[in-house]
Amino acid sequence: MFPRGIIYKSGYPFRGAITLEASLKTKIAYILARGVGAGLIGFAIISLLFTIGPAVKGEIQYDLGFKKAAYSEVDLVSADNISRVQKEAAGYGVGSYFSVVVPKIGASSDIVANVDAGDEKEYLSALENGVAHAKGTYFPGQGENIFLFSHSTDSPVNIARYNAVFYLLRKLETGDRIILFFADKKYEYEVTNKVITSPDDTSWLTSQGVGERLVLQTCDPPGTTWRRLLVVAKPVS
Question: Which residues contact residue 162 at a Cβ distance below 8 angstroms, ignoring those fewer than 6 apart?
Fold first, then answer.
């Protein structure tokens, strides 16, 4: 890659040869530049894989049928109901104190209660430990609005760190089941519709006089902060 060799010069009345060789500084500069370039390319590839990795993995697992969780009924009249609910929750990998399970997409997470959706520091801290329950909204069985969210951010590190639980939320359709465990009780909901809205739309945080309603929110498209995807569900009778 360096200029080297002999350049011959012919012609009357002189004949001669000039030998070319790159200086040590030129060689060092070239090696450093090549190393930096290779490093930047490698970093870009790793960042891309780290960013889209969870989404691609989730999509592949879903398409192959690995993301679906086994659905089971619990006898709510049984005397040992609390024990059975605790065991069912444990089977999904969550606790029965407050958690969410979406069998169709294999999503399950404990829920951090009463998180201020307007305080970025607070909700990002909560999302490190699970899905967040919006402060000011209600809990299962209270007959009002229940709002759960899992935001993504524009940082590759944060995309993988905060948004993996609800990556496949858009796969849900009308009639799909969502399970909430709360205070050692199991609550089931059925998806009624999906809504795409702006990040500034806070109307879904209020009950709007519709009775008990479960709203799951994530960012859309996954890994961006452009819009919000809301999945709305009602209690199963």
Answer: 124, 127, 128, 150, 151, 152, 153
Phi/psi of residue 218, nearest 5 degrees: -145, 175
What residues does each domain of the chain span? 4-42, 67-235
Q: Residue 124 is which amino acid? A: L
**Burial class, 182, CB count within 10 angstroms (exposed 0-12 / middle 13-18 / buried 19+):** buried
Q: Which residues contact 53 (CB under 8 A, 6 or more apart)?
A: 160
38-89 pLDDT tens trace: 778 877 777 666 556 666 666 676 677 665 655 555 454 554 788 999 999 9
Closest by alpha carbon to 223, among 109, 54, 104?
Answer: 54
**Mean pLDDT, the chain, whole residue set:** 79
- Residue of 91 and 156 predicted with greater confidence: 91
Instruction: Indicate whether 148 pLDDT > 70.
Output: yes
Taking the C-alpha atoms of residue 93 and residue 65, their distance in angstroms, rounded to an integer, is 18
What is the C-alpha separation between 198 and 175, in angstroms, rounded? 25
Bridge partners (DSSP) of residue 91 are none
Eight-class DSSP state of 16 = E
pTM score = 0.68
CATH topology for 67-235?
A: Sortase; Chain: A; (2.40.260)
